[in-house]
Amino acid sequence: ANKKNLPKRSVKTPKKKNQTIHMEQTRADVFTQKNAEILVPRYFLDANAKDEETRKWSVIAVDQYTAPAEQWYWEKVDQLVGTAPSTYHLVFPEQYLNADDKEERLTRISSTMDNYLQGNVFHTVHGWIYIQRTFRDEAKPPRHGLVLPLDLEAYSFKADENPPIRPTEMTITDRIPPRVAVRKEAHLELPHIMVLIDDPQDKIFGRIQQVTENQPTLYDVPFMFDSGRTKGWAIEEPVIGQIVDELNRLQHDFVENHPNQTPLVYAVGDGNHSLATAKQHWENLKAQRVRDGMPIEWDHPARFVLVEINNIHDVGILFEPIFRILDLPEGVTAQPFVELLQQSFRNANVQYLPQHEVIREVNSPNFNGDGQQHRFGIGYPKPENPAEFRYAIVDYDPQRDFVLRELQPFLDEFVEQTGAEIEFPHELETVAHHKGIQIYVPKLPKNQLFSVVSRDVLPRKTFSMGEAAEKRFYLEARRISK
């Protein structure tokens, strides 16, 4: 890393909302690393590479298909990949975080990283990578992204801090230690973090598309299970400097429009807990240096984290809801759920409907349109006859700006009272076939995200950027150890 581009202290962000922000404290070029070294599979650059081989490399984000009923997905991945070079051998699917062979998996991942690094598997891109992601449904517009490192010194997941790089959802700190244990042993990171910028005029990606229009692609590869494709282009200076200037412009615009707030330049759209894990790992490294009486290595690669930057105004950025399902403990009926629901939403209008009508309503524009974020659907086994289900749409007078601000605390209270287990599926079909309690929530309109998050973080698992198969697949990598 080029030390002259790195400040030697943490970015200080004020905690008082009425404190004026000075631009010299918040320049975006402090939050990125221009001279990045990003690794991509060398055989992707081979014009003769076959799709049937390249599709084995990238796997979906590890926080997908985590419910016990979804283990089939990762078994299918294992069968397809076998021993072929693949990011599957470099990541730890959360489906297996509590598996008996956890330590064996960690050892195997670390060993495979060493083998790939020593075995000339990777090609190094000096700079950033612009990507276009297409989907299974070819009618959907592509997503445009920019893969680059962000500075963890400008990020915090603590509730009382408002840094320039900010989480959108509440961070569950209990989820961080097992992920830190994985990162601690890793020589490489593979990003599934997606970070949003608010660029209404689309100047950043508009400029990138002009530059790359007649430039050959770095790679053009498919994803497994007919999950779309991605194309990548190398981005170098002077274009990187031009992009940084535009990022600084976004900061300036935020300061002009919100003079009493800390600039919100980057809002984490996906991978909140992965980013928090990277931050905690970096803080642990700094603390260890202090304990050892050594100076902090400000140029350490773990100070940065590789992410995909997206413009929230990109038509290829789609927000999807994340549903809830609850498994009741043995011997517990849904009666406590019904009673707590009546207490928590006592003024609500509850309309009981057949399941197919509830699902039709959930899929309707009326359910998901602006101003409709105070409605949710439920399904539960009848307390008097658990073999039968009851379904309803709950419409209530909102006290806050989005339904999950009130619904999630209600669900958390129910879990605490009954010992029920909660899962967060992305697929509507998974919810509809669940034998326990089903919760159908609306989409968060993406045009509201920056205004909502500037006030307060959202509850965990509020929204998903696309359906499960449209999530970020692991492809690029970066060294995080010296």
Strand content: 15-25%
- Radius of gyration, CA atoms, in whole angstroms: 23 Å
Mean pLDDT: 88
Contiguous low-pLDDT stretches (5 residues minimum) are 1-27
Instruction: Determine the structural class based on helices, strands and strand pairing.
Output: alpha+beta
Distance between the termini: 11 Å
Task: Provide a concise account of the structure shown.
The chain is of the alpha+beta class and 482 residues long. It has 13 helices and 20 strands.
Write structural notes for this entry.
- The chain has 13 helices and 20 strands.
- The chain is α+β, with helices and mostly antiparallel strands and 482 residues long.
- Strands 5-10-7-11-4-3-9-8 form an 8-stranded mixed β-sheet. A 6-stranded antiparallel β-sheet has the order 14-16-15-18-13-17. A two-stranded antiparallel ribbon has the order 1-2.
- Helix 4 (176-184) packs across helix 7 (272-291) and helix 5 runs antiparallel to helix 6.
- Mean pLDDT is 88; it is low at 1-27.
Question: What does the secondary structure layout of this molecule look like, with pairings?
Answer:
Blueprint: E1 37-41, H1 51-54, H2 71-81, H3 102-118, E2 122-126, E3 128-134, E4 143-151, E5 165-167, H4 176-184, E6 188-189, E7 194-197, H5 203-212, E8 219-222, E9 229-235, H6 239-257, E10 266-270, H7 272-291, E11 304-311, E12 319-321, E13 324-327, H8 335-344, E14 349-352, H9 355-362, H10 365-368, E15 375-382, E16 385-395, H11 403-418, E17 421-423, H12 428-432, E18 437-440, H13 449-455, E19 463-465, E20 478-479
Parallel strand pairs: 5-10, 7-11
Antiparallel strand pairs: 1-2, 3-4, 3-9, 4-11, 6-20, 7-10, 8-9, 12-19, 13-17, 13-18, 14-16, 15-16, 15-18
